């Protein structure tokens, strides 16, 4: 389980929701394929061989940002040296809070569970494991993300849950959410 572990710096290289994405040099902030607006950064997930950055569209409120293949969300698996991204001046690009997510094997009763790291996904709807856009193999479940601590600063998964997948061989990542 992932529990809330406080408020890190916005560019801290730790497992967190919110803050600023850490990206390789030359990175282009993703734009939504449906509305063309700048996506919102959701989460930074360090892995032992890289880091995942998750984005989704929050501009029009009409884009299919829940769908792993719509182009209205985007997850990257970076294996390069990373630095804080330059944030676009237009669009709803950042969450209202930065939250450290702390892996906790056995959460205490008063811990707020904000996600899951590895293991098997707990699907709300049907199994929607994406296939890798490069090798077409089923991707590996990497993390689940709850919306967050407070409604006004949380992500919007329709009161559901976000799912992050990776293909480590291809350095690909994917994101979707269900409600
Ligand atoms: Zn959009
Ligand atoms: Zn692959």
UniProtKB/TrEMBL annotation:
Name assigned to this protein: DUF1963 domain-containing protein
InterPro entries: YwqG-like_sf (IPR035948)
Top-level taxonomic group: Bacteria
Organism: Glycomyces sambucus
């Amino acid at each position: 389980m992932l529990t809330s572990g406080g408020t890190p710096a916005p560019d801290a290289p730790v497992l967190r929701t919110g803050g600023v994405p850490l990206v390789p040099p030359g990175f282009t902030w993703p734009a939504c394929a449906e509305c063309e607006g700048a996506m919102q950064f959701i989460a930074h997930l360090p892995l032992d061989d890289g880091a995942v950055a998750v984005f989704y569209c929050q501009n029009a409120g009409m884009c299919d940002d829940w769908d792993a293949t719509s182009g209205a969300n985007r997850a990257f698996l970076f294996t390069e040296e990373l630095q804080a991204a330059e944030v676009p001046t237009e669009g709803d690009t950042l969450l209202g809070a930065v939250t450290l997510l702390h892996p906790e094997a056995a959460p205490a009763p008063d811990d707020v569970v904000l996600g899951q790291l590895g293991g098997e996904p707990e699907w709300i709807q049907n199994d929607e494991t994406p296939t890798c856009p490069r090798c077409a193999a089923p991707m590996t479940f990497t993390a689940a993300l709850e919306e967050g601590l407070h409604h006004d600063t949380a992500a919007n998964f329709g009161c559901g849950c976000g799912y992050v997948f990776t293909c480590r061989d291809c350095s690909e990542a994917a994101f979707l959410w269900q409600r």
